[in-house]
Design goal:
With 215 residues, the chain is of the alpha+beta class. It is built from 6 helices and 9 strands; from the N terminus they run ααββββαββαααβββ. Strands 1, 2, 3, 4, 5, 6, 7, 8 and 9 form a 9-stranded antiparallel beta sheet that branches. Bound molecules: flavin mononucleotide. It comes from Parvicella tangerina.
């Protein structure tokens, strides 16, 4: 089939479940965790992989996938290189948005907020727990910068592996965690005929206001 025909004809009718304002928990973090539990239970592929969108200092959005590694009472933590494209964006503009899609459950979640670095000791503890090869990879990769060849990267890995042969690998100062502190959540449940259920939470002072949205 030609690509454009395929794109026009692909249809998926969502019909598994429903969502109403009465079904959701008052706290959106608890709601997220209950949906995540269901995603894990349903063996959703990569349930903790989220798109994270950032915006450059020129107003150009970009997005990529990261793993959510911790959920605190304040937000969603992920780890990366602070000098990567996303890191450079965040230092110029801390607004960010996560988006998760769990096709097996016909669910999507959007989380908008402000991104901050986590404290050093949180990054240190997470880094110390990673496998040694990942720790060395964090040192070797100048994430998002051009590199001449794969060989160059492999040589850097080789050198670092020798260097840290018998020693613990310290966390690079340009590698660590960010936390997205949300002020908006949206929980989306696919429904037949594109009449999807959407329930959003908006932070108002210190409390969460829940609204249903048009599909
Ligand atoms: C499933 C999956 C999980 C990923 N997890 C991470 C992660 O936790 N941290 C990270 O820095 N990159 C992760 N990546 C790679 C990023 O998508 C991205 O390529 C990288 O962070 C560079 O992004 P940037 O150039 O926009 O900064 C992951 C990619 C995939 C597909």
């Amino acid at each position: 089939m030609k690509t454009n025909e395929f794109l026009k004809q692909l249809r998926h009718d969502f019909a598994r479940q429903q969502l109403s304002k009465n079904d959701v928990l008052n706290n959106p973090f608890e709601q997220f965790k209950s949906w995540l539990d269901e995603a894990v239970e349903a063996q959703v592929n990569e349930p903790i992989a989220t798109t994270i969108a950032t915006v450059s200092k020129y107003g150009q959005p970009s997005a990529r996938i990261v793993y959510i590694r911790e959920i605190t009472e304040n937000g969603f933590v992920f780890f990366t290189n602070y000098l990567s494209k996303k890191g450079v964006d965040i230092s110029a503009n801390p607004k960010g948005c996560m988006n998760l899609f769990w096709p097996e459950l016909e669910r999507q979640i959007r989380i908008e907020g402000i991104i901050e670095k986590v404290p050093h000791d949180v990054s240190d503890a997470y880094f110390a727990d990673r496998p040694k090869a990942s720790q060395i990879g964090a040192h070797a990769s100048r994430q998002s910068q051009p590199i001449a060849s794969r060989k160059e990267l492999e040589e850097r890995i080789h050198e670092l592996t020798n260097k840290y042969n018998d020693e613990p690998v310290p966390r690079p100062s340009n590698w660590g965690g960010y936390i997205l502190v949300p002020h908006h959540f949206e929980f989306w449940q696919g429904r037949p005929n594109r009449l999807h259920d959407r329930v959003a939470y908006n932070k108002d002072d210190d409390s969460w206001k829940i609204v249903r949205l048009n599909p």
